[in-house]
User: What shape does this take?
Amino acid sequence: MLKKLGKIFLTRSTKPFIFHSEYDNSLNYLDLDNLGLYIHIPFCRSICDFCPYCKTVYSKEKSDIYIDYLLKEIELVSKQSSIKKEITTLYFGGGSPALIIDRLDEILYTISKYFYIKDGIGIELHPEDVTVECLKKLKSIGITKISIGVQSFQSKFQNMLGRKFVNLQSLSDSLSKVKFETVSMDFIFALPNQNYLDLKNDIDLAFDIGANHIALYPFIDFKFTKSPISALNTKEKRNLYYSIIKHCIDNGFSQNSIWTFSKNNSLYSSMTRENYLGFGCSATTLLKEQFKINTFSIDDYINRIENKLLPTSLTTRFTKRQRMLYYLFWTAYSTKISEKDFKNFFNCSLKKYFGLEIRIAKLLKFIEEQDGIYTLTPKGSFYFHYYENFYTLSYIDKMWGIMKNNPFPQKIEL
Assistant: This one.
């Protein structure tokens, strides 16, 4: 109830967010600053029960057809201008994008026809992909950041998640021989019976064997997955989270976002971007006045593009306040919100629209302010997660659950 009341208070409305089965076949992105790109590769060697993302078991034949149409989608969206657009970053997610490593250079060539990439290219990797041969190939085509989905180094949690044993020696040797700007490792946080020492050991080991960035993603029990695992309760999760923050800060690691820590401010984040274009099935696109999501069905994705139509399944058109809230939500994920950046993006004052919320957040000791920068405290970071969990469940659990069964639903209300 408190979460629902909080949503009403922040939006100043009792109306739901509504996604409609409509879209623009030409996307207006050329005038946007700080634009990013995301490309979804939905193929995996095997399917993990806990994973909510759009994925299917890899076959070379199906993946080759998919990539052919992915290239066509990029052309459909991007050929509206002969002028190359500068973008911040490009991220490949999945799935396991390294499964199509022999075609990544084709994708990057097509992207390079329309975009200049300013801040590097990142890719998600399965631990099995982290070999010297694979890493050398990725580096040779311009990949600068890698994120390895470890989830846990410990057998008790690997077994729980249905994951294979991670060969630490092989991982360490490969990372020592091929260097990247960012080497991130992902871990799942708040699993049943997981304690501080479990996470501390994983974090320390990650940095010891070559990571300069880690992400601790909270386990979320999505209703549409087949996972039998239940997450920790709120009190246990809060105590664990505070302990991990303290350990990381005490050891000189920077907190880059709610769930990420790094050495030397190394960065890896495909989420905290002002605007972005998403390519591939299930990929989302965020523009100044709209948010859209592509169909989850690979076959329907291909059929749409075959007819020279974008594979958009659903679109929501933002009100001004909704867009502000979306901006603040993902900016707060980085633990900092800048009054100056907000004014540059919306051409209006943050305090004019959210002065009351800022005062309440200060009273509750969720944020601290200095020189127009609002920084989340550890308490604020945890309660950000509390509401982020509510958002994730209402958005991903409901919307993705529907879209996995219906490629083009007429309308979804959240």
Notes: The longest strand covers residues 182-189. The mean pLDDT is 91. The CA atoms of residues 134 and 194 lie 33 Å apart. The two ends are 15 Å apart (CA to CA).
